[in-house]
Amino acid sequence: MSQNQGFIPELSAAPFLTQGRTRWITAENPTGEKGQGGKAASNLGIARKGKPCITLPQGETVVLADIHGTGILQHFWITCTNATSKGNFVLRDLVLRIYWDDEASPSVEVPLGDFFCNGFGERCKVNSQPIVVNPTGGMNCYFPMPFRQSAKITIENQHAEDIHGFFYQFHYTLVDLLPENTAYFHAQWRRENITMEGKDYTILDGVKGKGKYVGTYLAWAALERYWWGEGEIKFYMDGDEEWPTLCGTGTEDYFGGAWCFYEKENGIPVEVPYSTPYLGYPFYSKSDTTLKEKFGEDSVPMHGLYRWHLPDPIHFESDLRVTIQQIGHNSRELFERTDDVSSVAYWYQMEPHADFPILLPVHRRWPR
Question: Please, are residues 112 and 121 in contact by the beta-carbon 8 Å criterion?
């Protein structure tokens, strides 16, 4: 196998036919039914782009997809506005939930933007293998998500008004059977708007059963001066208590960077965002433009980072807890910090899963 084939296995697998029935769910064909696509009418007539999008009513939950049978959700694409006349932070106000096999509690519960590595209620471009965000706000997910009986995908609008022009496509394949070792996709969001000094931030906890951890997204607002990313990420698994089995060397190291992400411009160190297939630092800003005409653009520094454990998954047999420290450096020594940290954990496990923590109310999710 060539190096390129190993990097993008889909290319080497492309010529080989497999059993499956491909379906797309859109606003125009909300059930993905065979032979029912493209039937809605526009001013150009029937089957001429009649219903490309929907409106999300304020305060309501809309079912985007309700699939019955055995299959794999292979890709989905969503786009919508990130602000309305009633305010900004639409990407934090919309909540994405996914339920497998008629379960009562969701396996995915994440603010829409954060799921796509667009935290802080702001858009940024992401060029990675499982998550891609293109201009302007075209959010794509390629995590494969298998299900044995059903898949239900919902979006809840907790914004202050209706969201018009919500576009989506869900691409899936129905199959006859999945291997016994097929696990279910999960994603969970958490936030501490002020972390506790000397106490590690919890990215994920309470996971029971067998599975593998495949990704981390952090939206980190630095509340203290100087370098913010000396903290180590820790994976406690399979009975670990006081000490973890896996412990990193620093925040920027975990996300594949080094030396504070700095390069010098005119003799001054500046952060350099980047986006690669498996890890990235796609968002950095220290300005807030949401109400600049009234309050200016001053803001705390905001950092968005992702790491996908796809070529290097973290396997666990019975349980998993993931934390990260808030430790800084002032050029002389390390110091304990308190910052504003939000996170998304992505993992696969066998069902059932433990209930997630109660999602913070909408105003507690708004970025600082």
Answer: no
